Amino acid sequence: MALIDVTVAEIIQESPTVRSFRLAKTDGSPLGTYLPGAHIDVVGPTSITRQYSLFSTPDAQDSFAFAVKREENSRGGSAALHEVGVGDVLRISSPRNLLSIATDATHHVLVAAGIGITPMLSLARYMDVHGISFELHYFARSEKEAAFLPLLRDRCPEKLRAHLGVAREDQDEILGTTFAGMDPGAHVYTCGPDGFMTKVVALAGRHVPAGSIHLENFHAAEQPDASENSAFEVELEGETYQVPADRSIVEVLQENGCDVDTSCQEGICGTCIMQVLAGTPIHRDNVLTQSEKESGEIMAVCVSRAAGERLVLDYY
């Protein structure tokens, strides 16, 4: 995937652990617009690539903005970005969407926890400007730790429901009441810690179809040991390739000159998604929705495998 150089134009400490970064093109030309809910790949100072949601106004062309929470057990990505300064150069990909606004929804319920506010923020800003019906539920440990809360209170106070310091065992009641009062045509969007999103999906699923629930997930699923894998073959454009138990589909395809883009190689960014024309995938990603997985029509070939002896794939 092509990357471009950008300059860090501004850094803001949004909370004790969250910093936001405004990026501009090094030559001063517009970066362009993007669809709300989009994310970008960011290559940091340690050459580690991570995916971050854009929270800037999607319609604005001059700059992009993303936020990074410094994790205590960082593998190098978030810690390195917290050392970046204004004027430093980063490399980013073009924006792409795994999360987008459902155009057929009668109402939109945005549910964020912690740093999961970032994709919800771009959705909320777009919906607010364009007069789209929505409400935003924001769970945070405290007001101090709630990044972007002042901005939300200023821009869309009547749409914001801030739930600060709510114990985990009390979240169910708030969420259950929220979802029970939804219009049948409403859609739900969520981002946050894995356990929180699992809870949101389960509770929302009692009131709306699975296809009306949308997630943004940047945490890789734990992968089984290669000893649990089986070998299989993959056909692409009339050519057949053998995928051993200890190799991924994308590794084999790229090794044989196939043009398959990758980024995270952990099943969380969606760059390597391909169509499944025949065969049954074993989904091991954290990027496809449950309905997409159940359809068996697409798969993330960086981590997912075959349930049988053969898959027939095509470019997505």
From TrEMBL:
<keyword id="KW-0001">2Fe-2S</keyword>
<dbReference type="Pfam" id="PF22290">
    <property type="entry name" value="DmmA-like_N"/>
</dbReference>
<dbReference type="InterPro" id="IPR050415">
    <property type="entry name" value="MRET"/>
</dbReference>
<dbReference type="GO" id="GO:0046872">
    <property type="term" value="F:metal ion binding"/>
</dbReference>
<feature type="domain" description="2Fe-2S ferredoxin-type">
    <location>
        <begin position="232"/>
        <end position="316"/>
    </location>
</feature>
<protein>
    <submittedName>
        <fullName>Flavodoxin reductases family 1 protein</fullName>
        <ecNumber>1.14.13.-</ecNumber>
    </submittedName>
</protein>
<dbReference type="InterPro" id="IPR054582">
    <property type="entry name" value="DmmA-like_N"/>
</dbReference>
<keyword id="KW-0560">Oxidoreductase</keyword>
<dbReference type="InterPro" id="IPR036010">
    <property type="entry name" value="2Fe-2S_ferredoxin-like_sf"/>
</dbReference>
<keyword id="KW-0411">Iron-sulfur</keyword>
<dbReference type="InterPro" id="IPR001041">
    <property type="entry name" value="2Fe-2S_ferredoxin-type"/>
</dbReference>
<dbReference type="InterPro" id="IPR017938">
    <property type="entry name" value="Riboflavin_synthase-like_b-brl"/>
</dbReference>
<dbReference type="InterPro" id="IPR006058">
    <property type="entry name" value="2Fe2S_fd_BS"/>
</dbReference>
<keyword id="KW-0408">Iron</keyword>
<keyword id="KW-0285">Flavoprotein</keyword>
<dbReference type="InterPro" id="IPR039261">
    <property type="entry name" value="FNR_nucleotide-bd"/>
</dbReference>
<keyword id="KW-0479">Metal-binding</keyword>
<dbReference type="InterPro" id="IPR012675">
    <property type="entry name" value="Beta-grasp_dom_sf"/>
</dbReference>
<dbReference type="InterPro" id="IPR017927">
    <property type="entry name" value="FAD-bd_FR_type"/>
</dbReference>
<keyword id="KW-0288">FMN</keyword>
<dbReference type="Pfam" id="PF00111">
    <property type="entry name" value="Fer2"/>
</dbReference>
<feature type="domain" description="FAD-binding FR-type">
    <location>
        <begin position="1"/>
        <end position="102"/>
    </location>
</feature>
<dbReference type="GO" id="GO:0016491">
    <property type="term" value="F:oxidoreductase activity"/>
</dbReference>
<dbReference type="GO" id="GO:0051537">
    <property type="term" value="F:2 iron, 2 sulfur cluster binding"/>
</dbReference>
